[in-house]
Every structure is written in C-alpha cells, then in structure tokens.
Amino acid sequence: MIYNEETAFKTAELLLQIKAIKLEVEQPFTWASGIKSPIYCDNRITLSFPRVRTYLRQEFVKAIQAEYPSVDLIAGVATGGIAQGALVAQDLDLPFAYVRSSKKGHGLENQIEGKVSEGQSVVVIEDLISTGGSSLSAVKALRDAGCNVKGMVAIFTYNLQKASDSFERETCPLIVLSDYDHLIKKAIEIDYIRNEDLQTLMKWRENPSEWGK
To answer: Which helix (H) or strand (E) covers residue 180, if one does?
Structure first.
C-alpha cells in the first residue's frame, strides 16, 4: 500500500535524481538471481545525501505514526534497513534492533541483534521489496521470538505479484513510500525515459524471470 500519493512521486523523483534507481531499457541489468531487468535499485545510496536521507526518515515516521500509533520497537532488515531503521527509531525515541538474513555461525548465533522481548509490538523497516522473501524471513524471525509484528514499511517496491502474494499469505501489512508504477510515471514526466519505453518497462514486471531471454 502506498502511504501517500505526493510522497510516492516525490520519493521516486529523489531516487532517480541521486541515481539510487536506474532505468536502462536498451542495456538491462543482471540481478544476483540472474534475472535480467531494465531497473536497478540501490537505496543505500540515499544515506550519502543528507536532504534525501532526512526526507525518507520523516516520511517513514509520518507513515508509522499514522498507521501504527502504538509501537514498542523498530526493527531493520539487514543490511539495507539497518541505517534507515536506526534513524527512524531515534526520531521516534524507540528501541532498535536488526534482523540478519540467517543466524550467525559463531558466538551466541543470534539472528536478531539487539534486545527484543516477547509481546513487543514491532514495525519492520526495509529499503527495498523485490520478491519479499528476505523481508518476510525477518518478520518470521521476530514472530518466532514472540514479537507482535504490526507491519513493514519500505522505501520502494517493484510491485511484483509474487511479493504481494507472499505478504498477504504471511498476513503482514506492507506500506511503501514509493513503487514501480509511480516511478515510471515520474520518469516519463521528467523526461528520464521515453514514452516508447513504457511498454517494455511494464512488460518486464509481468514476468521478470522470462523477460529479456
């Protein structure tokens, strides 16, 4: 769910301006999974731009206060959600923890770093939602620890159907500051892409694993 239409377009514009998101129809990117894609997103770059970083933090806080007014803990998903989550927790004066992709193989073998308690209400912070697998793995870890995960807030989602189905199946509400649809509209508006590229960009999302083969 988009938190706010104005925020969605503004976030998309900022991500394009600082090249946290790149669109290349003629020279697509290859994801770690092997998927060919005309879009590449690295929201860690936002941390290097104070104005953008501050805007995202403020919008995260607004969304959480509007949708989840009673929260005990902010949790970030490693690694992209750690810094964003810590900034949000600081602003809300709440405890912070983060969730690794898997348990450490040494020491206490923690998957959750930081103090969490059974029964705590938690909002999870993520930088990017692709298929939703790693994000929901963090949700599961927190629930296994006895936390009440109220939902997740992320900077951006590709709007892939697989992710939507996964979040619905795990009954985890998802709020995003921006998404693929708003990004494409903004990219056309600011002449970042051509109108003739629109069909290609929309076709990719229908079946990412087969696109470009």
So the answer is: helix 180-189
Look at the domain 5-200 and name its fold. Answer: Rossmann fold (3.40.50)
- Domains of the chain, by residue range, sit at 5-200
Q: Are 158 and 43 in contact (CB under 8 A)?
A: no
Q: Which of 116, 176, 106 is nearest to 145 (CA)?
A: 116
What is the pTM for the complete model shown? 0.93
Per-residue pLDDT tens, the chain, 213 aa: give them: 898 999 999 999 999 999 999 998 888 898 877 888 999 999 999 999 999 999 999 999 999 999 998 999 999 999 899 999 999 999 999 999 999 976 654 445 689 999 999 999 999 999 999 989 999 999 999 999 999 999 999 999 999 999 999 999 999 999 999 999 999 999 999 999 888 888 888 889 888 888 866
| Cα–Cα distance, 118 to 31 (Å, whole number) | 37
Evaluate whether 3 touches 176 at the Cβ level (below 8 Å). yes
Specify the pairing of strand 121-129 against strand 73-77. parallel
H or E stretch covering 7: helix 5-17
